[in-house]
Amino acid sequence: MSAPRLRPLLYxxxxxxxxxxxxxxxxxxxxxxxxxAVMWLRMVLASLVFLPFWRRLPRPARRPGDRRYLLxxxxxxxxxxxxxxxxxxxxxxxxQAGAVSAVFPLLVAAAAxxxxxxxxxxxxxxxxxxxxxxxALLSFSGVAQAAAPRPLLGNILELSAMLAATGSTLxxxxxxxxxxPWLLTGLQAAVGVAFFAPLAFISGLPDFAAAPLSAWAxxxxxxxxxxxxxxxxxxxxxxxxxxxxAALAINAIPAVALLGGWIxxxxxxTWAQxxxxxxxxxxxxxxxxxxxxxxxEQPVY
Length: 301
What we know:
The chain is 76% helix and 0% strand.
């Protein structure tokens, strides 16, 4: 495989590794901070790291109407996405949330067909139906535990976060030809600081000095690595690939999240949930493999 084709795949592989581990890091940080405090502090850290570099980025080729697309981009991510996922991880486990996130590439494929002209195959449509059913099984078979006191509510919130991420992917794809992906990522972090500040203060800020080092390390990892790093790499891949193919890399997130939750947090799943996770991942992989075969035979991009 040539270097130009390999580069976006590497971007996606690293981004997925970071995102898959973010569920464990978020659960760790939430042991010491409220969900909104976690979201605000990670945005603050990401913005502080990004600030010295923003002047070095290429200026965008603006067009009339871009303002509404930029507004949508920051509304979806970070505002709605992190708001929903922050509370989702309060009620469900890191592993279950990671499994629910597997539906994201299918949502992007379904939306990219009418909005971006990226065709959705029958395999993709079937995979969407199977994945939604498996998410329902995952949620209703969840057992309340310390890591997941209300799994049904948490998984519904995580699914809603994936809908917000889908909207962001489509908008960023629209802007990516004229806006540097790292500029868009930095803008999302800066807006997140302003959006989550009042929510963090309303929810009550904890005693920062009393928070353990592990909580601060988790916040730093979330802000810099999972925030700036992962979203910057994913936005860079979106500039080089169709939206539905870039989103299919999210397939690997459930495996990373489930493994991390099991090893680092001691989370457990029922057998029904294991089957549901396998159905979600299997449906997405089926859509990817069969859909890509048809795309190779009949190019549509």
